[in-house]
Description:
- This is Monocarboxylate transporter 2 isoform X2.
- About 75% of the residues lie in helices and about 0% in strands.
- The chain has helices at about 25-45, 50, 55-60, 65-85, 95-110, 115-145, 150-195, 195-200, 235-240, 240-250, 260-285, 290-320, 325-340, 350-365, 370-375, 380-410, 415-440; strands spanning about 15, 20, 210, 230.
- It is globular, with a radius of gyration of 22 Å.
- By secondary structure, the chain is mainly α.
Amino acid sequence: MDEAFAHLEGTETRHSKKELLPPDGGWGYLVCIGVGFTFMLGFGSSNAFGILFNDFFIEQDGASGLPLVIGVYNGALSISGFLSGIALKKYSFRQVGLLGAGLFILGDVLTIFVTRTYQLVFTFGVIRGAGFGVMIPVSFTAFNCYFTKKRTAMMSANQTMSSLASITFPILVTFLLDEYGFRWSLALIMAVDLHLLFAMLVMHPVEWHMIKSVDGPKPGDDGVVEIKATTPTRHESIQKSIIKIVYDNVELDLLRDPRFVSTLVGLGFAFVSDVTYLAMEPMLLFSYGYTKMQVATCVMVGAIADLIARFSLAIFTYFYTVDSRKIFFCGTCLTIFLRIALVCSSEIWYVFTITVISGLIRCSVQVLFPLVLVTAAPDRFPAALALHIIFSGFLMLIADPLIGLIFEATGTYLYCFLAMSVCCLICVVLWSIEYIVYRKKSS
């Protein structure tokens, strides 16, 4: 079977449920390692962005360009991630994944030579962001194809690797900057990112590693999957325009549901606040006069608090049922005050305390958002996720540059962090109105 179509669902070729099963190990462990490396290198270096480019932005007369770069990066990531999901219907994991890895590394190479903010927007924001966005659906899809019974355990391992990268990268980047300087640090990071090529190369079609079932499937065994394949006609794929492809993969009728729209918009603005905070906190701390090591330690402490909160939440939800939307809502309410609190004092003990609390609260946004989204469209989660990706991407492209303009106009981070609080407030107000309206209707 042609590798390009080996993992696709279609109409003709079918493996018997009673004969073949995903390996749940074997080559799947290499896939798991590849996924782990993808998220380590993608999220880890992005988490240290403010530390890595602080001196660069100072040379460019301020940090107003940072939100622009971050907004473009996350916008490109979201849009390319959506398009990658569409591409996986026609091409193999490795074909799509290697394209993403190539873009990511190309962005690294070009970033080494940037001298202006607009160049960084293109190299890091557009090219690198698009590359990472392409690799994310590949990683998740390949992982889900290879694991069924061990899926939770293996995904937990991947999440741990990603969290460890978020903890260690700020310190590592600080060390590289002190030892090798800005340009050579970028070159060394690029060299490390070359491992993404190997991470994508191990994403074999699952059919190559299927195992035979001895006993056949058991009453409700969700460990069995059905693999289908089809080859689309060349004429059909050429005739489809990009707009039609996007339209065919976005179920816009979901937007007729006011409750879904409220959830979509609230999640989007909460994400803008979260992502912008991670990028701008180091710049704020540098403006307080902190050393690179103090800033890196503060970021690391926040990441450790986030990791502890994730483990605690996982253990708690294993024994007790929780309302994900209510936890997300409460976390967003607290975040409004935490963003403001961070700019109220430059005392190091105070800043570290606020950072730790923010790290503990942050998991309510990052971990629970899929569960919140699925409650808004329980039977149509893939379509809801696609709309979330598109909306969040375009929102970041608009909101983050506006936050940068606020800094340029005021010359202070105070109003930037107030803007992040306003983003969270939009989520809280929308969901509060929704709760009041639908509670009256139900009573």
